[in-house]
């Protein structure tokens, strides 16, 4: 998905000002920090569920049905995750920006780059997408863990599910020797090409 906006401590999200109220036990300033993190998580999840659906529609080849059917439960779960994040954000006193325009304007990664292609090529690209999502999510967990254990708990549950989804993807990309065909790839296109060489 892209660069990790949490690495330097900067949060690259255009968000609402500090909320006027929040949940008991948090200051509005701390809630504002969590809201900023959650807004980027919401964008990430909305982008991921659309990307997964794009792949679902555009896979071809001998692995078509296996990948096509594997992705719909992931889409459904990721959509539920987005809903949970948006509702937590609202409970903290924030405004959940879920429009396509807000997503495109505020995201810190480029759009998914693979169109109609072989199922294994798409899985190679998805492996990189999941890696970016998971790296950003782990950074978000670290940030909110110092402020709000309820939000941390929510994100940890999502981390487990997303790591499992990446495992499903990687099972198609792993060699008998235990290496990934996407090893060393730095772009989705490169990962897609390497996956087809397997």
Q: Which radius of gyration do the C-alpha atoms yield?
A: 17 Å
Q: Class in CATH?
A: Mainly Alpha
CATH architecture: Up-down Bundle
SS summary, helix count: 6
For the biggest sheet, the summary is: 2 strands, parallel
| Estimated share of beta-strand residues | under 5%
Whole-number tally of structural domains: 1
SSE string: HEHHEHHH
Adjacency order of strands in the biggest sheet: 1-2
CATH topology descriptor: Ferritin
CATH superfamily heading: Ferritin, core subunit, four-helix bundle
What would a concise description of this structure say?
This protein has 198 residues and is mostly helical.
Walk me through the structure.
The chain is mainly α and 198 residues long. It has a single domain (28-196), classed as Ferritin. 63% of the residues lie in helices and 2% in strands. The chain is built from 6 helices and 2 strands; from the N terminus they run H-E-H-H-E-H-H-H. The protein has helices spanning 28-58, 64-91, 100-106, 119-145, 149-171, 188-196; strands at 59-60, 117-118. Strands 1-2 form a two-stranded parallel sheet. Helix 1 runs antiparallel to helix 2. The longest helix is centred in the first third of the chain and has 31 residues, at 28-58. The protein is elongated, with a radius of gyration of 17 Å. The two termini are 23 Å apart. The model is unreliable at 1-15 (pLDDT under 50).
